[in-house]
Amino acid sequence: MRYLFVVLRVAVAVAIVVAVVAQLSASLGFWRGSGITDPTTQVVNFFSFFTVESNIASAVVLAVGAVLLVARPGPDSSGFTLVRASVVTYMVVTGIVYNLLLRGIELPQGSTVGWSNEILHVVAPVYLLLDWLFAPGRVPLAARSIWPVLVFPVVWVVYTLVRGPFVVDAVYGNDFWYPYPFLNPVDSANGYLSVLFYVVLIAAVIGLVAAGVLWISRRRPITA
Question: What pLDDT score does 220 carry?
């Protein structure tokens, strides 16, 4: 079973990298077509999407996990298991939020690559969850491990809301930029109140998913 997950982890990691590169390439072409000669800001915006960051982290964790399965039989360290738990949480939330709130809505990264979109928002989240459930190496994590899992989403929200008003969106002619509509206080019906509602709602989802991921680690440890 270990070598099956080696193959699966490598395959999904490669698929994620290819999907990210394909979307970035399409976006670069879209920006050039919009007359942008220096896309530095747009590239930073691209890598400011929670989806992109979570998928890149997933590709790294899957690659490292594949190496560990080959090089070090037996249980993973608690540190690596915590990193896995964090990435699984972010990816499951990415899948939930995208498919419930964002599917069908054009996001400001340029022309969307359909198959890449499905890999990043459906295939990768589903696999990360299955990998967490069934791949060997996972060790139990205490309930208090939820706090480090929540650090990245909190930092990301603060970064997004603080940066947003200072970014000039050369593509659409706005003097602000937010990666997702529900975080945009300018176009939201009730401004920051609407944003606060969604932040609290998604924070609750992240907390529940993280708690579930940690609970699974304690109920079904897989160390073989």
Answer: 65
Measured CA to CA, the distance from residue 117 to residue 51 in angstroms comes to 10
DSSP 190: T
pTM (predicted TM-score)? 0.92
Q: What is the DSSP string of 58-121?
A: HHHHHHHHHHHHHHS-SPPPHHHHHHHHHHHHHHHHHHHHIIIIITTSPPTTSS--HHHHHIII
pLDDT at 206: 96
The tally of domains found in the chain comes to: 1
Q: Is residue 29 part of a domain?
A: yes
For tokens 């419930």, name the residue.
Answer: 100
In a domain, 169, yes or no: yes
Asked if residue 224 belongs to a domain, the reply is: no
pLDDT in tens, 41-77: 999 999 999 999 999 999 999 999 999 999 988 899 9
Which pLDDT score, from 0 to 100, does residue 107 have? 66
Find the domain containing 128 and state its range. 2-219
Distance, CA of 92 to CA of 174 (rounded, Å): 31
